[in-house]
């Protein structure tokens, strides 16, 4: 299965590319916008998108949407996270070293309902992640469309909070299925840090980094895709307000 939380509403550019940082030969790599596959102890599997990579002390963590790591979504306990091709990103011990939050039901018609949809897991020592880049390869099932949506690597700065200044501006997301798509911010909840944006996304894009272009020329993550529908409004939970939990 692929994740994108459904709501009761029918809601869900190019940026300057930089050269890809060289990876350690033979190492497993990952980055914001990459597909991740979560496997549970009952054999169930789900695809989501890595939001970002965060270093805490001597460890490095992958961040995604909380529902991607929620046992109730699988009917079993998540025990492994891999790349789409099956390379190990995190085992059961690494997942246990992380955690997830999942509560609230914010959607476009109920923007004040609040939402926490944030998950994190420690990356295996064998992984050589890109700490400062976002990129994506679209896999919509439409061969003529995918090259147009595939996003080349862009350099990232520190995540930033959700503010009222975002409303009316253009933001972008990189997802495992729909790649790089952009659209306007419809509204925000600055108290509980949600962003409501008209950006195409489908199941498998959950966790996608939502970002803005900063005055420093870098992109800055403001949220992670939680729920919505493919063609109208999608809801992103703020990222920065949860990062203090990673590695805690």
TrEMBL record:
<dbReference type="GO" id="GO:0006508">
    <property type="term" value="P:proteolysis"/>
</dbReference>
<dbReference type="GO" id="GO:0004252">
    <property type="term" value="F:serine-type endopeptidase activity"/>
</dbReference>
<feature type="signal peptide">
    <location>
        <begin position="1"/>
        <end position="25"/>
    </location>
</feature>
<keyword id="KW-0732">Signal</keyword>
<dbReference type="InterPro" id="IPR043504">
    <property type="entry name" value="Peptidase_S1_PA_chymotrypsin"/>
</dbReference>
<dbReference type="InterPro" id="IPR009003">
    <property type="entry name" value="Peptidase_S1_PA"/>
</dbReference>
<protein>
    <submittedName>
        <fullName>Putative secreted protein</fullName>
    </submittedName>
</protein>
<dbReference type="InterPro" id="IPR018114">
    <property type="entry name" value="TRYPSIN_HIS"/>
</dbReference>
